[in-house]
Amino acid sequence: MPRFRTQEEYDNAGVIYGLTGGIGTGKSEVVKIIRADWGYPVLDADVIAREVVAPGTLGALLLRMYFGNGVYRLNDEGKLELDRKRLGELVFGDARARSALNRITHPLVFLRIFWRIFLLRYIARVSTPIVLDAPLLYESGLAKFCAVVLVVYASRSQQYERLKRRNPDWTDVDIEQRIQAQWPLERKMIRADERIDNRGTRAELREQVAQALQRLRLQVSLRARKKQKYLAIALGLVFCVIIVIAILYPSK
To answer: How confident is the model at residue 229 (pLDDT cuts 50, 70, 90)?
Structure first.
């Protein structure tokens, strides 16, 4: 027997939940928990950003025109790929070069994200929220397309530790440049609807994610019902005006 959706599930279906945080704060762990425990589809802006600059794409052509052919190289398999280390050396620490990179890639990333949201909403007809995982959610302007936003945070020392573990060849200067290239965590936390503290254990993180998502589902549902209430009031007023006009000016 099919299970009917609750009003809260209906209100949250296809709604965009933004997920962001500083580099090295552990967003990937939060994404794993959301996928495993909640089954929400997650759009990874980093993965999409790699797709739009893959060899043979418009993004690759624009990058080579601006930064030169040196930002692409042959890998061990003899295939052309973006040299992320070389590109990082060019843009981190150079605000003008970083701005140029963003002007090239952000529109392409936006278009692909919106297309995938369309497919999930209107073709797959998902019955859950859609999570948009984007490190630059606020910086890029993507946050304004999200109904609610979660921010993951950790201590600066934990950020350094995680980034060192993930990128052993990065120096402290490399790490600091990448942290400084994003908004301060405090600024993101002030704007967010929910904040997830990733300074503890995985069990604690899992519990925080569950509580945050439950609160956001309720928040989105209450907003939807408020809009429905205002719409009903507006339609009622229009109907009353029509009735009054009909009484005062009856048709002959």
So the answer is: low
Domains of the chain plus CATH, in order, are 7-248 (3.40.50.300)
Q: Which residues contact 142 (CB under 8 A, 6 or more apart)?
A: 18, 45, 110, 113, 132, 134, 136
Contact 102, 140 (CB under 8 A): yes
What's the first-to-final CA gap in the chain, in angstroms? 56
Residue 205 contacts residue 153 (beta carbons within 8 Å):
no
Q: Would you give the distance in Å from CA 219 to the centre of its chain?
A: 18
**Parallel, antiparallel, or unpaired for β 16-21 and 130-133?**
parallel
pLDDT digits (tens, 9 = 90+) for 148-180: 999 999 999 999 999 999 989 888 888 888 888
C-alpha to C-alpha distance for 174 and 178, rounded to whole angstroms: 6
Distance CA 127, CA 114 (A): 18
Return the structure tokens found at 230. 């205002």
pLDDT of residue 4: 62
Residues contacting residue 29 through CB under 8 Å, at least 6 positions apart: 198, 202, 205
Confidence category of residue 7, pLDDT binned at 50, 70, 90: confident
Selection from 99, 121, 139 nearest residue 12 by Cα: 121
The helix-helix angle for 84-91 and 95-118 (nearest 10°) equals 120
- Which of 3-7, 63-67, 77-81, 162-166 is predicted least confidently? 3-7
CB 134 within 8 A of CB 10: no
